[in-house]
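Module 6 notes. Inverse folding takes a fixed backbone as the condition and produces residue identities as the prediction. Think of it as a translation problem where the source language is geometry and the target language is the twenty amino acids. Below is one complete input and output pair. Work through it position by position during the lab.
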């Protein structure tokens, strides 16, 4: 295969990835074809060429997905356009590295995808490489299938890694079938195995959806969601004139109006916003929210900043729960901070970073704590901003309980709805993994509420760049799924199997090469 043809396959794989990702024009199942094209492009390459091709593929998947970060870096951190672009390139390279590692390993093992066992080993290698690699913003093939409820339900068994393994297996089996057809050597094993994987996903999904729809909810909670549309660094042309001076007072008035129209609310939630409240009891924001909760008789969950008296404990980005007649009753301290935005990595070792990036905040990460307790004893598991992208963190925040996952975010800094779209597409997996409803509430729109099946609650999606309020009823289930109880057991087991299978395959190949060389040496030469 020519280099031009391989480049075309890699470009086609990246194009299908973006077109089939949620919010794209193609169904998510087209991601299987994107994986198949990746497999075709990598076949028959040397280790170095395969690693380079894998890196190019990863850049194709990530670079177009991160363009919105540039404007955020300019507004939030004061970066120039060039520096923001270099930051995006660095992020893309970091997230593309696992694809290079996978491709190089597959080439070292000389995996032939027309052999079903080797196609499965390749799928395992890709799953392990992507799942164990350090990621600032997780995202890969499997997330596209979340838009298909029947295919996505298996996430409650092994998390996103299990869905990724199924996706990669089906894609690489399809690669093998295409290769075998081109050589007129198609054997029934690959099509049969591919069919079994598809049937397994559809059957499990159908059974789980049916069971969840029959199950009686443990709790039903009526939520009031407030989207104040508070502007930040720029006045957008598409932002209504009436919203251009919105502030916390706007959110307070929205809350009063929402409660007047729906007095049966159990909990009101505000998003993360550009103007945060101070957690200190003597602050104006603290007193205003405590008074508002007393006035409407409904608990309110808001975002704030906490300056702790002990300097060693630092400053925290927090979610604050205000209860009627009780004031501040619970605090969640953000555990996973945004690099360069909320803290500077290696600041102690590289003190000049603070001089170059003076706008970076100095937040301190919080520690794992028990969930906040909402109305009727329902557990609330807050996540702030991009924390909802990390499966283990959300699972730990729930602490094994049935509850409501609440994500409060502010994407106004990025100036593009793509930030909220990408966040929502990835974070919806948390509702499936934990069989818990998930509320995604953003300051400037693009939020949604997902039920325990990972489907969008009808009418819960919010418009971009508009101030609005809405009431949504969510239901919690008593059942705790395997993934929430046991975490990444599937991924850990798969990693062991992939290691053993790779060693065995490499050992057989090495001894096979030695035997072939020995046979060449003892072969009698002709006259």
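Target side of the pair, the amino acids:
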């Amino acid at each position: 295969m020519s280099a031009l043809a391989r480049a075309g396959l890699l470009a086609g794989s990246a194009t299908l990835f973006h077109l089939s990702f949620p919010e794209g024009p193609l169904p998510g199942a087209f991601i299987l074809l994107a994986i198949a094209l990746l497999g075709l492009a990598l076949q028959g390459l040397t280790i170095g060429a395969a690693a380079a091709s894998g890196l190019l593929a990863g850049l194709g998947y990530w670079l177009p997905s991160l363009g919105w970060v540039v404007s955020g870096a300019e507004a939030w951190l004061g970066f120039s356009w060039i520096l923001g672009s270099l930051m995006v390139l660095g992020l893309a390279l970091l997230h593309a590295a696992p694809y290079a590692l996978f491709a190089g390993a597959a080439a070292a093992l000389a995996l032939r995808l027309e052999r079903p066992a080797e196609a499965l080993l390749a799928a395992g290698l890709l799953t392990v490489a992507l799942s164990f690699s350090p990621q600032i913003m997780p995202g890969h093939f499997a997330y596209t299938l979340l838009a298909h409820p029947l295919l996505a339900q298996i996430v409650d068994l092994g998390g996103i890694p299990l869905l990724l393994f199924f996706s990669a297996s089906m894609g690489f089996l399809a690669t093998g079938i295409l290769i075998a057809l081109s050589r007129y050597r198609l054997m029934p094993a690959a099509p049969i195995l591919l069919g079994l994987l598809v049937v397994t996903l559809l059957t499990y999904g159908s059974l789980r959806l049916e069971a969840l729809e029959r199950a009686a909810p443990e709790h039903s909670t009526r939520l009031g969601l407030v989207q104040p549309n508070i502007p930040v660094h720029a006045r957008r042309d598409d932002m209504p004139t009436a919203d251009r001076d919105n502030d916390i007072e706007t959110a307070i008035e929205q809350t009063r109006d929402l409660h007047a129209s729906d007095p049966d609310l159990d909990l009101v939630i505000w998003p993360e916003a550009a103007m945060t409240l101070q957690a200190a009891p003597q602050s104006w924001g603290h007193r205003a929210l405590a008074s508002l909760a007393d006035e409407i008789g409904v608990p309110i969950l808001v975002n704030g900043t906490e300056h702790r008296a002990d300097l060693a404990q630092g400053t925290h980005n927090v979610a604050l729960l205000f209860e009627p007649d009780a004031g501040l009753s619970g605090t969640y301290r953000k555990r996973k901070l945004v690099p360069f935005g909320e803290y500077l990595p290696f600041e102690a070792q590289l003190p000049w970073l603070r001089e170059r990036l003076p706008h970076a905040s100095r937040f301190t990460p919080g520690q794992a704590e028990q969930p906040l307790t909402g109305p009727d004893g329902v557990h609330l598991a807050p996540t702030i901003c991009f924390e909802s992208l990390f499966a283990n963190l959300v699972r730990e925040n729930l602490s094994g309980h049935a509850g409501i996952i609440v994500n409060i975010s502010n994407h106004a800094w990025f100036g593009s709805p793509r930030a909220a779209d990408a966040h929502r597409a990835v974070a919806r997996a948390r509702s499936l993994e934990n069989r818990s409803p998930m509320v995604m509430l953003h300051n400037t729109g693009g939020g949604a509420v997902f039920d325990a099946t990972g489907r969008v609650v009808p009418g819960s999606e919010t418009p971009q760049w508009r101030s609005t309020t809405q009431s949504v009823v969510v239901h919690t289930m008593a059942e705790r799924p395997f993934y929430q109880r046991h975490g990444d057991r599937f991924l850990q087991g798969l990693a062991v199997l992939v290691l053993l299978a790779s060693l065995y395959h490499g050992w057989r190949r090495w001894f096979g090469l030695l035997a072939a060389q020995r046979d060449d040496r003892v072969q009698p030469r002709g006259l």
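Reference fact for the lab report: The two ends are 37 Å apart (CA to CA).
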